[in-house]
Amino acid sequence: MINQSFMDLAFEEAKQGESTWTNPQVGAIIVKNNQVLAKGHHEKFGGPHAEVNTLNHLENIKDAEDSTMYVTLEPCSHFGKTPPCVQKVVEVGIKHVVIGMQDPNPIVSGNGIKYLQDHNVEVDVLNQTGGINEAYIFYYQNKRPLVTVKYAISLDGKINQSNHERTILTGKAAYLDSQNVRAANQAIMIGQHTLEIDDPYLTVRNQDLDFPPIRVVAVYDVNKLSQDLNIFKPSGAKLWILSRTESNRKLPDNIEVFVSDTWTPDKVVKLLAKNNIESLLVEGGSRIHADFVKEKLVDKIIIYQAPIILGGHGLPAVYADYPSSEIKFDKVQITQLGDDFKIESRRSE
Ligand code: AOF
Ligand code: ZN
């Protein structure tokens, strides 16, 4: 018998994993005679998997015998940073494993289920994500990071008062939310114009992260950037500079330069995919947005809209020099944040 409320509990456990970086959030519950005997989740990148943590939380490991494990993701079958969880599950005598979803990671996908079945463990797969691991799932299904484009606009759809200045449009609640959006992504990217006009740090300031997002800037020539830019201030966050030239000076350890003749969105996304980066937040400006729209590399949008009309010569959020490139979005969510609105939407399938 399968009890959905136990799987819901496992998803709640999974969400407590705060520092899983490119690893998935995973939660597990051990149930016997309709009683929850133990709960656990994957706590930290590189640390024990949820299944093992849960078994470790049992008062007596013998209680696992003939029990049911509810686990949000297919238990792993590979020797990675830790030994395979399926071996442990079989070894302790669990008789039934209820799985939220098959692991999209090809190293495991289906192999964990097969191993369990081959060892006479009953397996059920519910095909539920619990609303977690959006980027993880996307990355393995599409072999590239999930790209979110994020910007703030006025009521007349502009991101600034003029091309040469930064305009702060939204209030404190939107600012705090945007910090959380940064924290939820593994890389944040801007173009050269935004780098020079806005001079951002691109760091997450409202929380202390074990793995802050990698800051990615696309520029023409790394050697022509002012050393006074905030992005060069000492930081625990990595900085990847995508340049057309090599750097002619030694840079601090947190900075890496990648060289190519052009840095099209496709190339950027491939570089990130090669480095196992599952999510990218593109934060401006309007030309880089246009580049991503042109290549249809926008999977999500997050817009903060402020109750102000700017008029004048400000830029639109997507400033394109091509006739049209339509991308449709759905699953629109609108939240009010102070006086501003947050509009969040996923690209239509
Ligand atoms: C996790 N936590 O609770 C489970 C995972 O890098 P490794 O060796 O820790 O392996 C990561 C892979 O293990 C991950 O992509 C997924 O396929 C599988 N399951 N991973 O980090 C967990 N159950
Ligand atoms: Zn595992």
Defining key terms:
hydrolase, EC 1.1.1.193, binds ligand AOF, oxidoreductase, binds zinc ion, alpha/beta, 349 residues, 14 strands, five-stranded mixed β-sheet, nine-stranded mixed β-sheet, EC 3.5.4.26
Give structural notes.
It catalyses: 2,5-diamino-6-hydroxy-4-(5-phosphoribosylamino)-pyrimidine + H2O + H(+) = 5-amino-6-(5-phospho-D-ribosylamino)uracil + NH4(+); 5-amino-6-(5-phospho-D-ribitylamino)uracil + NADP(+) = 5-amino-6-(5-phospho-D-ribosylamino)uracil + NADPH + H(+). Its EC number is 3.5.4.26, 1.1.1.193. One of its GO terms (molecular function) is diaminohydroxyphosphoribosylaminopyrimidine deaminase activity. This is Riboflavin biosynthesis protein RibD. It comes from Companilactobacillus mishanensis. Helix 3 runs parallel beside helix 4. The protein has helices at 4-14, 50-56, 85-91, 111-118, 134-142, 172-183, 192-198, 265-274, 286-294; strands at 27-32, 35-41, 68-73, 96-101, 122-125, 146-153, 187-191, 214-218, 239-243, 255-259, 279-282, 300-305, 329-337, 340-347. The protein has 349 residues and is an alpha/beta fold. The relative contact order is 0.12. The longest helix has 12 residues, at 172-183. The chain has a 9-stranded mixed β-sheet with strand order 10-9-8-7-11-6-12-14-13, with helices on both faces. Strands 2-1-3-4-5 form a 5-stranded mixed β-sheet, sandwiched between helices. The model has no long low-confidence stretch (mean pLDDT 96). 23% of the residues lie in helices and 24% in strands. The two termini are 34 Å apart. A hairpin with a 2-residue loop joins strand 13 and strand 14. Bound molecules: ligand AOF and zinc ion. Ligand AOF binds at residues 23-24, 26, 42, 49-50, 73, 76, 80-82, 85, 103, 105, 108.
